[in-house]
Design goal:
Blueprint lengths: L2 H5 L11 H12 L4 H11 L3 H16 L8 E4 L14 E3 L2 E10 L6 E7 L9 E6 L6 E5 L11 E10 L1 E2 L5 H31 L3 H18 L6 H18 L9 H4 L4 E3 L13 E4 L2 E6 L15 E5 L5 E5 L5 E8 L2 E7 L7 E2 L6
Parallel strand pairs: 1-4
Antiparallel strand pairs: 2-3, 3-7, 4-5, 5-8, 6-7, 9-15, 10-11, 11-14, 12-13, 13-16, 14-15
Helix pairs in contact: 3-4, 3-5, 4-5, 5-6, 5-7, 6-7
């Protein structure tokens, strides 16, 4: 991992409405990279935490399947909120797949899909295989799902398979793919999100000590990424990384000034998602701004919030700025005008938590 590339300041890659095109542009910019380098260097360059998550997710897929195509892909395993082999109903026979998968990350942008399916003969114990299908082929249908409020820029789909032709991957579907992917996803998404936070810290001049803690966490991620995903010692080390992530956030020491308190100097502008279903107090509207409160991927502990917790003003250029009036570690969705939503995280220690672009509202 060329750490000097991470340590220097660099411009973020502009967010693209086309996830596949944006990922292709990122790969072209990075050149030939390992999965860990993709997660860290790519996550650092992303404009939003959702896009950083997607890069980490793609890195995990490439660690799982080294010969994966360069384009976007997705793992399709969950059925009825379960990963248990005995609960799966999707079936593989004669290189044909039939069934349904409930949750496909970036499904409508994916070029290939890894599908876990039952493949045992009648009377045998449940056995899983992993196969590859391609969206747009006969028998492969994707149904777009509502956006997740915390990642409105990442699409999610449901997959329907009806006698769809597939390519079979070698090895047991559970032991070689589905089970290790759970660990790989944790490692590489954590790496990408930590790199994204480090970039925010650089851009926003976070305290040097906090930036160094995030770098140390990335160094730990590098070591854990070298462990086999079925290595029990690697699982213990990964648990230690999550503990360090919590400590860097400041969750174990209220008022300690971790990244959850510092986050707020950067604003990620993005469209989509109505904020419904968010945690906290839901959505309140005041002073022309819709405010929806939620935790960031479960990491920021949200407190009830409403527009009364924000003090908003406009300058001569009609730019709106908002300040928190009390301690509030939250992800908020701010509506500058109908159809436009801007996500930002803030804490009362941040002087300006959000500045809206010039608008007619």
């Amino acid at each position: 991992m060329p750490w000097q590339n991470l340590l220097k300041r660099c411009d973020r890659v502009p967010a693209s409405a086309d996830l596949a095109e944006g990922f292709a542009n990122l790969l072209q910019q990075l050149g030939s990279v390992t999965p860990f380098e993709l997660a860290v260097a790519g996550g650092r360059l992303m404009a939003t935490p959702g896009l950083a998550f997607l890069v980490g997710y793609q890195a995990a897929l490439r660690m799982l399947w080294p010969s994966a195509p360069l384009s976007l892909g997705a793992m399709c395993a969950t059925e009825q909120r379960s990963l248990r082999v005995a609960d799966m109903q999707t079936r593989l026979g004669d290189l044909r797949l039939s069934g349904r998968k409930d949750f496909v990350t970036a499904g409508n942008a994916a070029d290939w899909l890894l599908v876990a399916a039952r493949s045992e003969q009648p009377g045998e114990a449940p056995r899983l295989s992993l196969a590859v299908v391609y969206p747009g082929e006969p028998g492969v249908r994707l149904e777009h799902l509502p956006s997740i409020p915390l990642m409105p820029d990442i699409s999610h789909c449901r997959l329907y398979l009806e006698n769809a032709q597939c390519e079979l991957l070698a090895g047991d579907g559970w032991d070689a793919y589905v089970k290790p992917f759970r660990t790989l996803e944790d490692i590489y998404v954590l790496s990408a999100m930590t790199a994204w936070l480090y970039g925010i810290g650089q851009d926003s001049d976070w305290p040097r000590s906090l930036q160094l803690r995030l770098l140390a966490l990335l160094a730990g991620c590098a070591e854990v990424s070298r462990q086999a995903p079925n290595n029990p010692a690697g699982h213990v080390l990964l648990g230690g990384l999550f503990a360090q992530f919590d400590r860097a956030q400041g969750r174990d020491r209220p008022g300690a000034g971790g990244w959850a308190a510092a986050l707020g100097g950067d604003v990620a502008a993005r469209s989509g998602g109505d904020g419904s279903g968010s945690g906290g107090a839901g959505q309140a509207v005041g002073q022309g701004i819709g405010v929806s409160c939620a935790g960031l991927n479960g990491a920021i502990a949200g407190k009830p919030c409403s527009y009364r917790d924000l003090q908003c003003t406009r300058d001569s250029a009609r730019r709106r700025s908002c300040q928190a009036k009390r301690g509030c570690d939250l992800l908020i969705l701010l509506v500058a005008k109908p159809g436009q939503k801007i996500a930002a995280s803030f804490h009362s220690s941040a002087s300006t938590v959000w500045s809206a672009p010039k608008s007619d509202n």
